[in-house]
Each structure stands twice: as structure tokens, then as C-alpha cells.
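Quick one, T. Sequence first:
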Amino acid sequence: MPLVRTDAIILQTYAYSETSKILRLLTRTHGLRSAIARGALRPRSRFGGVLEPFSTGVATFYLKEGRDLQTLDAFELERSGQALGRDLLRFGAASLLAELVLRTASEEPDPALYRQLLTGLSRLESADPIALEATILAEAWSMVGRLGYAPALESCLECDRELVPGEDARFDYAAGGVRCLDCPPGAVSRSLPAHARAALVRLSRGEVPPLERTAAHWSLFSRFLAHHVISGGPLRSLTFLMDTFARPHA
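C-alpha cells:
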């Protein structure tokens, strides 16, 4: 059983028995892995209380291929996730990225995905509060693209014509992209004004544009995920973020 040492991001933790923790890790060299940290909940644990969501560091674990749960030997902390944990919205945003990875990634190594998540967590932590909502949408859309589910936004899915700047379109949820107004709209679609499409293109590139009618952006993102990315029920973090940003409060 080889001992593996790799850069890792803690995506999720939960208690196992009274003394141990189970971690879900995204690693640079071994993809998505689960590991048990025996004794992590003991007061004098050798892990020292660093095994918290969105902390990054170097994980050492005993790897047995074909086993769902590996055994964590050590975790050398490089950056704590506490700053994200102190802000409910930032924690929810980081949880959204983590849930997307947990639902779709595999044990195959994907260094580009690892780098994207690492950068995304850093951007969420440092984002100006005024731009936080747009930053969350940008990180979420660009993560969807990295995972292989990017929507087609610049050419019509039906006739393959490239849409010009300032051109309105329709977003076809089932087909996963836009149709020009000259083509049939598709069975499940909504209008997409030119300014909204331009913003969506920028969000998908990880850019942070000024946004209008953010509730519409959240609705489109949620419905796109339901059609193309996630199965097994909605993402809890997305429900929280939509409740916070997209729905009026009394």
C-alpha cells in the first residue's frame, strides 16, 4: 500500500465515530479522494485542528486503489479556510464550487481543475463585497466550463451562425446554449437579451461584469445545472445563495 504525498484541498468534512473525521479531498495528482483521519477529533490530535473545509495543504495518505476510503497519515497546512468560514456568503460560495466538484469530478488526476478551484477559493475570499455576487457567478460558471459543461453562447445551436454583439437570442436549456431569433426556439427556452448574453459570456470566462437583474442570472444558472450537470437533487449551497441573492425578502 503506497504512501502518497500530494497537494490537496479539503472540500468537505464530517465526523466518523466520536474521534475521527472523514474528508473529501481534491488532490492535484490523484483526483477526488475520500480519506479517514483517525483520532482527528481528540483534544490532542496530531492533526491539530487544521482539517476544516477549504483549507489547502499537502496530504499524505495510504493509497489502496479500488478502496473508497483511504487512510490519512498527515496534512501539512498551507492556507486555512477560516477566512471563508467567517463569512456566510463566501462560505456558501466556496461550498457551491465544492459541491460541483464532488458531484462531477473523478479519481482521475486533473491538475487544471485543482488549480482552478484553488484560484477560485482565493478570489472568493478576497472579493470586494460590492462585487461578491458577480464574483460567485463568475467562479461558478467558469467551474462548470472546466468540468466540461460550458454552454454555447456565441453561435446559434440550430444554424451555427455566429451571433453579433448586441444581438438578442434565446437560451435553450435542453440543448445547452443559445439560438438566434430566426431559428425555432427549442422546447425549453427563455429570451436572452443582448446585454444579458454579453454578461453571461464574460461570466463563463471567469470575468466579473456589472450585472442587472441578478435573479434572472441565478435562475438561468440553476436550470442549466439541472439539465446538464447535476443529478441526485439540488445543490444545498445553490439553494442558500439563491435564497440570499435572488429572492425578495419581506
